[in-house]
Structure formats: C-alpha cells, structure tokens
Specification:
The chain has seven helices and nine strands. The chain is α/β, with parallel strands linked by helices. It has a domain of about 130 residues: P-loop containing nucleotide triphosphate hydrolases (Rossmann fold, 3-Layer(aba) Sandwich). The strands form two sheets. Strands 5-6-7-3-8-9 form a six-stranded mixed sheet, sandwiched between helices. The protein starts with 8 loop residues before the first strand and ends in a 5-residue tail after the last helix.
Length: about 250
C-alpha cells in the first residue's frame, strides 16, 4: 500500500563529478510504500543515483539524505552469492554479520526463502540453482534484514522474459506484504518492466538530471499487477518520455 509521510531517502540537486563528466543535478524524494523506477540511456547515472540513496557515495554538489543505516538493501544484476555456502547460509549472512545469533538468523533466513518460493532449497548451493532461483535467493538475502528501502540495480536484466515477469510479480507481492511501507527503487533499461512494476517512473536525461517523472501502472495494495490496458498506457507514457531525452540519430 502506498503511504504518505516523510521521505525515506532524498536527493536535492545532487551532482557527482567523474574525471570525464558530471552526473546530475538529481532531485528525488522516496516515500514509504512506493515503487520507483529509474530509466535512462546507458551512462545517464542510474547506478550513481542508487549509490547516493544507499549512502555509498556522497555528492560533490547538492544534498543527499540516504536511507537509514542498516535499513537499506541492494540487489545487483548478478546474484553475488557465496559459491561455497548453501542458500540458507547465504541469506542468513547479513543477519549474522549484524550480530544476530546464528540459530535465529538461520530461522529467519529459512522463512524468507520460503517467502520467495525456495523453502525446499535451503541446502542448495548456488551452482544447483537456476538463474531465476539464484536471483530469488539474492532477493531473500536483501529482504531478510527487513529494510525500509530496497534498491534493485537491473536484477532482472540477464533473465529470460518469462522468469523476469515472474520475479517482478514476486517482488510486487513481497512489497505488498512488507510489515512497514517498503520503498523500492528499480534501475532498468526495460520500459515495460519499469511501467508495469513501478508507481512512478523517473526518466533521466543523458546528463543524469530528471527529464520526466511519469506515472507507472504499479501494483495495487495486494501486490497484483495493473490490468493490461493500464500497463499498456503506462508503457506508452514512459516510452514517449524516454524518447524525448534521446538525441536524434545522425
């Protein structure tokens, strides 16, 4: 359910300078219970925005108020699982590192794996999991700490279309069942994924500034996707806004 309240994380005129270019200024406020997608051309600064929101980087100009320490989780394009550890050990790792007793950490990890449909694969090693299962395990590891802010850096990009759709639906259901208003940010190059999953789609221009902020179809309170007509309309809005940021072909 989309909630009102103070932003969980905030960017105000945030600019990051690299040797070859600058990214920004970026303005973005993330409210509890919302799913936001960041879309833009390669190099537009989408991952840089995630790093600012996670507190992994400070802006060179402007202001960034990242998510609260210990309440932010990230999932990357690769599952980044420990190859020698089974699923429950991979998922319990952030809890154990934070000082949670091992028995409690593994119990919570098992519950979280069941939540993402891997309750029967607790002892499986990463090499024994399919690509979709490995990503579900990575998602469980990100959620087991009960974060306020979940940052997704193209986690579905390498998956086939059927698996990708199923994982997006799963993420929306998990979002809907979160005890508190979980804020989610998805970085993606896929216009359809952005429009279908997010309540709000932020399009970055090639400099990394916000070029447009349009409504997505987004899931409703129980995590179910919008109907096909709503999704189709949202895809058209996002595609048009993204196209407007692209330089015309020579």
């Amino acid at each position: 359910m989309v909630e009102k309240g103070r932003p969980i994380a905030l960017l105000e005129g945030a600019t990051v300078r690299f040797p070859e270019r600058a990214v920004g200024p970026l303005d973005l406020a993330l409210l509890p219970g919302t799913i936001t997608a960041l879309v833009g051309a390669s190099g537009a600064g989408k991952s840089t925005a995630l790093n600012l929101l996670a507190g992994l980087r400070r802006p060179d100009e402007g202001r960034a108020v990242p998510g609260a320490r210990g309440r932010v989780s990230m999932v990357f394009q690769s599952p980044t699982l420990l190859p020698w550890a089974d699923a429950v050990s991979n998922v319990s790792l952030p809890l154990e590192l934070a000082g949670t007793p091992r028995t409690e950490a593994r119990a919570r990890a098992g519950d979280q794996l069941a939540e993402v449909g891997l309750g029967d694969r607790l002892s499986a090693l990463p090499r024994e999991l399919s690509g979709g299962m490995a990503m579900r395990c990575a998602l469980a590891r990100a959620l087991v700490t009960r974060p306020e802010l979940l940052l997704l850096d193209e986690p579905f990009a390498a998956l086939d279309s059927v698996t990708r759709t199923r994982l997006i639906d799963l993420t929306c259901r998990v979002w809907a069942r979160a005890e508190r208003g979980l804020a989610v940010v998805l970085v993606t190059h896929d216009v359809h994924d952005a429009a279908r999953m997010a309540h709000r789609v932020v399009i970055l221009d090639p400099r990394g500034a916000v070029a447009a902020d349009v409504g997505g179809a987004g899931p409703i309170g129980d995590g179910l996707p919008a109907d096909p007509d709503q999704t189709r309309d949202a895809v058209a809005r996002v595609a048009a806004a993204l196209a407007a940021t692209m330089e015309p072909a020579a």
